[in-house]
Amino acid sequence: MFLSASSVPQTGVRHSTFESLRLGRSSQSIASGFLRLWDSLNFKKDMEFVGITVLFLDKKVNSVIHGFTPLGRANHYRSSLKAGSIVKIDHFEVARCSSMYKITDHPFLICFISLTIIDEVITDAHEINFQSRLDCSTISK
């Protein structure tokens, strides 16, 4: 697993917006605000833990997209996901979001894969007002 949450300042973060995401596995990067995470449970199988669902905000296009970390990688990424932080995510899979599980208006879902790298962005990131798009206090755990 590749995972880091370095405190070393990063400059010149190059990234795509949510609008430019392409379906499939990708080496592209996104930098966005990290809004919230919660455990995903399978209600049909005695509330079995199946992974972590996350929400990301792209202030450039005022868009929210959700992501998913499956059970096998959940513990590796949990410590790198801090609500209110700005993160850069590299190497992930983009899939169509099933209408059954759709929690944002965005048609895609970001899936963490074994190559996914998450870094907290310290410098040169866009300032994000986390209350501008979504009031996180209204989302139940």
From TrEMBL:
Source taxon at top rank: Eukaryota
Database matches in InterPro entries: NA-bd_OB-fold (IPR012340), RFA1B/D_OB_1st (IPR003871)
Pfam families in UniProt: DUF223
Domain Replication protein A 70 kDa DNA-binding subunit B/D first OB fold, chain residue ranges per copy: 34-119
UniProt name for this protein: Replication protein A 70 kDa DNA-binding subunit B/D first OB fold domain-containing protein
